[in-house]
Specification:
6-stranded antiparallel beta sheet; 35% strand; 6 strands; homotetramer
């Protein structure tokens, strides 16, 4: 749904972008991994570790918000080549994420403009159920 | 601005609530500290540590979203006695938070209903400048 | 993506629901029309009239927000039988809606719970381009 | 809380801006009136009329969203001199607005940047109770 045709889009090295996710200290702590990148779309993995729990039962919502922010950012980065600053974000929590669950997030660019981009992100538990959805605005120029 | 008058509000042990913040594994990692609690209001500290950086220069927006979520939750908890699940949240990033900066968040309950509560949170850098604002909805019943 | 299986869902008279949209005085002013209803999904039409303009060129964003609110509500109503109160809503404006354009909105229930439902809405211009997207939370119980 | 000091801000004709609100056809239908303008702040009135009802009892949430959008916009316009496009908006409905109630909205600029501005808006009923709050992002450059 992007406006950017291949012609006016910069060449983006998706492999290099994939590797970059772990350069952020916070991403390293979270062990975030980019599973897939294609134009306008990113799929990330947040492997479970006990440090991300809110209590003995649930994964912390702040970690899910972080996963959404990063996944949307990486989806936008597939078009512009760089992660970009988040302007604002909405997160809706739909189902608790439980102790031990690896989470997968899929982000898609809804609108890519010269200055701003909007991305939607869906977070799934290992049963393929929606845990949370997010919508974020990024500054692209 | 709460609807809960002292009469219909449960007695809440603010000191106990203050200590509880560090029971969550994620809060322990973040070294979150409750500075102040009063009815409908919470003030929290996120001390800087290198693991929360997005890059060499900036603190990660996901950590700021986490701080907002928790601060709003603790503000709501001052009225009901317990942290409660977040339903949804909006975060607006207003100014970058820099490497080395301790962040302070102030949360206020805007509306406390039987089933739902809304809280506003403002995050400040050590110069007293607004870094981000958040608004979150919590399920109280 | 709803949790409500046909078994636990009340029988809903979709034809009656379709007609009800014009009972609201504001909907009558806007000449809102329900084009299609099915379980968890609604499609509405906002026909152009000059009174909804913000200036000579553009349709007012407040009218688009209204269309989003109502379309999400009607999508939720297909499952519960009744329009329900909106708790909160996010609207992202993606492209201006121009003088003379009829707008179509498609709403889908993302999560239907006992007490709360989340719906996503997309608004299109007559060229099939996205004008705005919205996400709203409704109180279902 | 604006960053714009009087020195770098354009001279804005607040009286002219006040009158402009009724030039929009939708504002004329809603009989919107600007009560007060000062740098970074606007106060608007939405007088009751039956056409804004959702049913016999309540004012329509879409009209309240419109009031929020316009009030935030006018608050931003006090700094830049012009109403500007809305990028996105969140509305939280806190209390129903009843048949017959005139609504007053107060908007404040939280952050005014070169390209983007954030405004907060609170909507009150004639008893001074909060009906809704909104937060919107505007494109200023």
């Amino acid at each position: 749904m992007s406006n950017n045709t291949p012609e006016n889009r910069p060449a983006v090295d998706l492999e290099e972008l994939k590797d970059r996710v772990s350069r952020a200290p916070l991403h390293r702590f979270l062990q975030l991994k980019v599973l897939e990148l294609e134009a306008g779309r990113a799929r990330l993995l947040l492997p479970f570790r006990t440090e991300i729990l809110a209590n003995e039962t649930y994964i912390h919502g702040g970690v899910i918000a972080t996963l959404i922010d990063v996944t949307g950012d990486w989806a936008v980065a597939t078009l512009g080549g760089q992660p970009v600053p988040t302007v604002d974000m909405r997160v809706d929590y739909l189902r608790v994420a439980r102790n031990g669950e690896d989470l997968t997030a899929v982000g898609e660019v809804i609108r890519q403009g010269k200055n701003l981009a909007v991305a939607d992100v869906a977070v799934y538990n290992p049963h393929g159920q929606l845990v949370a959805i997010g919508r974020a605005l990024y500054r692209t120029g």
